[in-house]
Amino acid sequence: MPRQVDYEDRRRRIAEAVCALIARSGMDAVSLRDVAAQAGVSMGAVQRCFRTKEDMLLFALEHISQYVSERANQRIAGTSTPQAASTLLSHSLAELALLDDASKTQAHVWLAFVAHAPASEKLAAVLHDTYAKLHDLIAWIIRYGQDTREFPQTLDPDREAHMLLALADGLTVHVLAGHHSSAGALATLQRHIDHLLEDGSDCN
Q: For residue 81, what pLDDT is reported?
């Protein structure tokens, strides 16, 4: 058992090293040698954990995908008292958009994987699964808001979830490119949520 725990910890360290290299220098900077140096392990140790570079990238993407998903889910699971659906939606979207300074590295890495996905069916499959789970989470919050009569019954939760997820993704890009500030992006998200509260029929 201790060897297994050490093995999984090493895989996580390697995944974090991959993410650090991508955030600093882009996907092209990821080589077994540089990842080993970043993780503080030998190249042999990296190769024992991952048979190929693609396997290593897949695990790193799964690592960052779990991070993104957990940020949003913790906003719901971590509340000790019931919150308004609009509050849950606002907080969850802010987490998904990775807008705060602490998440800037993850935002760079996420977008690098998104850009690289068309060249790798396996990476694209992981991203597809992650987006599907995030979509389901957003749609669930909207349905919850409809059950509590906070959101209009005229809203289509799945359609709105598609729009909101795309908006959050786009704001991630705009903030990293310097087109929006984090505060401005958060305000944009909030305006859209306020619009849903005011008149759901205008968004269909």
A: 61
